[in-house]
Amino acid sequence: MDGKIFLGGGGPDYEVGQWLDLKYANRHGLIAGATGTGKTVTLQILAEGFSDAGVPVFMADVKGDLSGMAKSGSAAHKLHGPFTERAEKIGFEGYDYRACPVTFWDLFGEQGHPVRTTVAEMGPLLLSQLLELSEAQEGILNIAFRLSDEEGLPLLDLKDLQALLVWIGENAKSLSLRYGNISTASVGAIQRRLLVIENQGGDRLFGEPALDLADLMRTDSEGRGMVNILASDKLMASPKLYATFLLWLLSELFEELPEVGDPDKPKLVFFFDEAHLLFDDAPKALIDKVEQVARLIRSKGVGVYFITQNPADVPEDILGQLGNRIQHALRAFTAKDRKNLRLAAETYRENPAFDTEDAIRDVGVGEAVTSLLQKKGVPGIVERTLIRPPSSQLGPIGPAERRAILNSSDMAGKYDTPLDRKSAFEILAKRAEMAAREAEDAEVKAEEASPWEREYNSARRYSGSRVSRSSSRAPKRTKKEDTLTSAMGEAVIKELKGTTGRRIVRGILGSLFKGR
């Protein structure tokens, strides 16, 4: 059906088709469910549907099995045989096997084209979240970004930021008068956090050439939307880096894309897998940022779909923005699980044919409870839905197949070679080199001076109020030393004025006269 994506069959016998209207696909969505209930298949068939409709997709491959979308499925595959039966059961006419146009990306540049951004583009808020900085440390990071703009010190990669922080630490006293207290201990703490990120491979994220967002919004020669897959199996070892990068990407889309209102279909659909990583222990400022993006980015034609195990993982203010919902089974083994199950059920428009809470608990693998936006954006009545089978391969492709796709990609060679143009690190290094050279020249000049020049330089100077010498003269006694000497002198004089003193004087004088 034009303008819609077939999701599966609903109703008692799954004969009622469930369709996602492309006109409302940018109203965002949620795919939730316990491990092993079918979230990955749902994610895959939605990406296929958007691609067939000419809508580019960006998705993170957390488990490493979404790479199979680049290859056609097969009836001979052990997992695809039952899919043919499922297609017949739900009335999925025209079901066939075909691959999707895929571009592979990787922050580490190993399983896909490298993805980079600059430190300046990341900004202090997201970078503070990535580094898990305290409020005081975040303040210093904001000062660093301010100085970068004022001093003409571009922040492109981590070594630029590290060099600027060293400069800030060396000039902390003078900078504190202007920007507030700058603690060298806090600067050191930020440097240590940067070192941790660097050891985790995060330094590969920062640099140039930076990712051009237009490269995520391409279509192939047949007009199908490109499926951009970010290799995230290794990235998940650094969950903060994963979450921060995806939020940065959303923020960049929000900043750069023009307003389009309510288009007939999205310009891009963004799938955020393991969404709970974004919200775990996140500060309120970051939650507010995500909510702002979720509220406003739909007017840019971008749909955002969060994938997580439990709807409770997503803050309520953001959950309220997710109009299209696909809920796989939730297990209720504990009191907290039962509470979350009840809350999840209460968010759906009731269906008199069944109890929503029971349905969410009882649906099997490959089934889901769905509610999709209908005419005028009204939430549809909740339905038990058997999800349609995917057309592309279920499961990963081999390394050789991935390499062949990378070599034939339009992006081959564009991002492979990193650039290192003049930025904060080089500018500050040059300043330090010039200062060292000037000091060395001054020292050589002093050594080469004639004796009378050295004498002149060490002579007294009259400044109009006092006479001073150069630092080459003997050091002046301190006030403490002067006080001690004066006290001793006064004691001796006092003693000499007394009886004992007179006896000593007389004895000395007598000895002198006797010797004559």
UniProtKB/TrEMBL annotation:
Q: Which Gene3D superfamilies match?
A: P-loop containing nucleotide triphosphate hydrolases (3.40.50.300)
Please name the source species.
Ruegeria sp. PrR005
Q: Where is the composition biased (Low complexity)?
A: 459-473
Write down the CDD domains for this protein, in alphabetical order: TrwB_TraG_TraD_VirD4
Where does the Helicase HerA-like C-terminal domain start and stop, copy by copy? 18-512
Identify the stretch(es) annotated as Disordered.
439-484
For bias type Basic and acidic residues, the affected ranges are 439-458
Which protein are we looking at?
A: DUF853 family protein
Q: Known Pfam families for this protein?
A: HerA_C
